[in-house]
Amino acid sequence: MDLLEYYAKQSSFTDPGEFGIMFADLPRDIPDLCQVAQGLIIHYIDGEKLLNCAIPEERLPEVDIRYVTKMLARIKELDDRPLTEARSPEKRLIGCCRDFATLFCAMTRYLETPARVRIGFGAYFIPDFNQDHAIVECWDNNEKCWRLIDPEISDLHMAEYSIAFDPHDVPRDQFILGGQAWQMCRSGQINADKFGVDPKSEFRGWSAIQHKLIQDLAAQNKIELLLWDVCGLMGRSPSEEELDLLDKVAVLTQAGNEAFSEMQAIYENEPSLKVPPVIMSYSPASAPSEVMLGI
Questions:
Q1: How far is 155 from 182, CA to CA, in rounded Å?
Q2: What DSSP designation does 56 have?
């Protein structure tokens, strides 16, 4: 399948299913689509700080909703108005950056715009630190290039984090792809401990970078995992041979459209990289557990 055709079609995660009718009145403009997503989801951590809305403990498991069809079912249950009408904070789906990205990706694919979730690190939240983050890469048909879009970033984020760039065209030095972070640290350009959940978290450094590198590969193969999902080489130290494999993954996940087939092949043919039907999830809402995926 042609690369652009591939990314214009839904994945098992982004497919709205029976709720696709809810997308019928979506705007086609990227900034307007971002605004729609922002009116439907509240971040389980940032929500209280930015929107003055405490997250009820009993609703925290909403962060584990993987599939857009189930996201839309919950959104409709909370408020059945059209998606283009922003909800009050307490009526929004509780999620994180991955959910903004995955829902936005579903909307753009519905509009037949090629899009893919990208996993890496945002340099625009914590000074001198790169925080794990998920955004979207959309195809600009006019310029014939991919553009990074952060659908989570609202005017409130811009003010709170002093963000000076356009979130609908994120600079490549502000969102650092998992493969780019891997290469920067492998070359000694930057300390691996500058990457992770936050500077005090145990989930930082090489384990965080390796995890995001492989999750980004999965996302480019339209497996849009939760950020705390783990399987295969995501969850263990690599051998010397596997370090070479990850070096190759870092190159392919950043390569141009001409490397699309090779990127797909390394994912499909390497069992330590391909997401299996059963994975582990280390959710902030519950104890670690095995999860069976609908893939």
A1: 31
A2: P
pLDDT of residue 196: 97
Contacts of 180 (CB under 8 A, 6+ apart): 120, 172, 250, 254
pLDDT digits 0-9 by tens, 136-172: 999 999 999 999 999 999 999 999 999 999 999 999 9
Residue-wise pLDDT for 20-47, tens only, equals 999 999 999 999 999 999 999 999 999 9
Give the residue extent of every domain in the chain: 3-292
Strand partners, 195: 130
Q: First and final CA of the chain: distance in angstroms? A: 19
User: Can you tell me which residue has the tokens 């193969």?
Assistant: 221
Q: How far apart are CA 174 and CA 187, in angstroms?
A: 19
- Residue 212's pLDDT is 98
Instruction: Please give the C-alpha separations between residue 180 and each of 17, 96, 192, 256, in angstroms, as whole numbers.
Output: 34, 23, 12, 14
Q: Cα–chain-centroid distance for residue 51?
A: 22
What residues does 139 pair with on adjacent strands? 146
